[in-house]
Amino acid sequence: MRASWRDTLLSYAFLAPALVLLTLFTFYPLAYGSYLGFTEYGGARFAQGLAPRWVGLDNFRTLLADPLFLTSLGNSLKYLLVVPALQLASLAVAVLVSRELPGMAFFRAAYYVPVVTSVSLAAVMWEWVFNREGTLNWVLGALHLLPAGGAFGWLNNEHTAFWAVMLVTFWRGFGYYMVLYLAGLQSIPAELEEAAVLDGASAWQRFWRVTVPMMKPTILLCSLLSTIAALRVLEEVLVLTNGGPLNSTYTALMYVYSKAFQGFNFDYGLASAAGLVVAAVALLLSLANFRLFRESGGDEGRA
Amino acid sequence: MSAVTRPAPRTRTRTRPAVSPRRAGRLALRYALLVGVLLFAVFPFLWTLAIALTDKTAGGSIYAFPASLFPRAVTLNNFAEVYRTFGLGKYIWNSVSITALTVVGTLVVSALAAYPLARFRFPGRGLIFGVIVATLVLPGETTFIVNTLTLKKMGLLGTHLGVVLPTVAGAFGIFLMRQAFLAVPQALLEAARLDGAGEFTVLTRIMLPLTRPSQAALGIFTLVTTWNAYFWPMLVLSAAPDKLPLSVAVLKLKGQFNYDPFNIAAGALFMMVPVLLVFLAAQKLFMRGLEGAVK
């Protein structure tokens, strides 16, 4: 069937608002932002209204020589440790709430509530938990597990702040992945489970031999989403610690943000270059995720 | 293999005796775990609620455990006080304005774009669809920098419109609406066209009424995300503190030098309660919308 002129014209008329907005606020910034990464732009140059000046790889050299950038990139990579913990926990919780037992709808909804909580509220509430006099220390004290030196502020200590921020990411995320895993679990044909039961498989065997292989696409999707989210963590850091103490929670996107917008010497060129590095790492990690899954899924992936 | 070595489970599942002790134990363990996770998920909210309702004039610190979890004297004064002293009304209004604009904008733009993608053949359709899909995977670490520069040029930096415009066209909404439109029977459309209805009429009179659940899901999803958004409004409105939404302002409250946890907890609830109500009312739609976006 050939498209008629009328249909074509109408289609583009309907699409126009979306296309204009996407071009202006998504595609153009992607292209222009990539270009800026290779230019000197910002600060005095920007104030005088001068155009960006092409400097080739200069910004990337500057980044490699900046200990703060290296620290921030290292922190972002370290932040990826949240991914396996988050995925295992969400899958386990999904299995926990997947059985139709009394009260399950309530538990599912309650676990999802942190997902619909804004990061600023999370900051307010978790600061009280992590405070010197907060709940965490109280619970640890009650269990006689307080670290040496007694109570301390988890967010103010350069050895713990990072893990405290990560815990908040974990808290805000597990309900989200739980719902995705739940959808995956429900799409497993009941006959498969039943056949496994008839074959005498234990619950544990059913989980590893039936559930996990069938869930592979969902697991891949979730770990991919969560890897990228972890690499791009910014808001939690911004509201909980602002990168401190002693840059222990300073992440790569925090670097991009602060080079571009904090202080007086905003440097769009350098910030864009740093953004490109993060984007490249994100792409590499996505590819690695796919690879990993295809290889490990070779023998048992096909049921 | 295990069928040979351990035949026990088979007989048990077939005959189904009244709840065996072992099964009851497992069930108890399951619920214990569920409650444990529940505490982790909702404890911060419960504590915030307790603090917000505590009568601070009765003395006592929020850190006096476990007493502070069960306020002895309950009051609503903190809500009135934080509303008055920090002029919360202004921030609530800003949140409402930004959220309403975003929800309406997203629904309109997504429906308009999804209609031809679902129902027409035209040159470039595959390309356009591919390009929209690409926005889901293209890493946009520098987009917020360029977008603020663009908004500045357009004179929209520091305005609600500036917060809203860059967010209303998104792959999520377009996908969701496209899926919904694809499910509408072709016969209905043809009947309407035979009756002489124009395409805009078909969209508004047939497609939209038949896809209310998807629009509701998208609307609620957008509402919650926008109401809670922190980074982008903070960036766009950094030079216009009077136009900040509650999500950003609530942290300014925390930064005030006469930091009062009771007031902050009350302010936090002002922000949380609307979203919580919407979520509880529309939970099913919400989760369906999430799944729909992933499939």
From TrEMBL, chain A:
Subcellular location: Cell membrane
One GO cellular component term: plasma membrane
SUPFAM superfamilies: MalF N-terminal region-like, MetI-like
Residue span(s) of domain ABC transmembrane type-1: 73-289
Tagged with keyword Ribonucleoprotein: no
Keyword flag Isomerase: no
Stretches that traverse the bilayer: 12-31, 77-97, 109-129, 135-155, 162-183, 269-288
Swiss-Prot/TrEMBL keywords: Cell membrane, Membrane, Transmembrane, Transmembrane helix, Transport
Pfam families per the UniProt record, alphabetical: BPD_transp_1 (PF00528)
Membrane-protein topology: Multi-pass membrane protein
GO biological process: transmembrane transport
Residue ranges that the Swiss-Prot or TrEMBL entry lists as coiled coil: none
InterPro entries, alphabetized: ABC_transporter_permease, MetI-like, MetI-like_sf
Protein family (similarity comment): Belongs to the binding-protein-dependent transport system permease family.
PANTHER family for this protein: ABC TRANSPORTER PERMEASE PROTEIN, LACTOSE TRANSPORT SYSTEM PERMEASE PROTEIN LACF
Protein name: Putative sugar ABC transporter permease protein
Organism annotation: Deinococcus gobiensis (strain DSM 21396 / JCM 16679 / CGMCC 1.7299 / I-0)
Lineage: Bacteria, Thermotogati, Deinococcota, Deinococci, Deinococcales
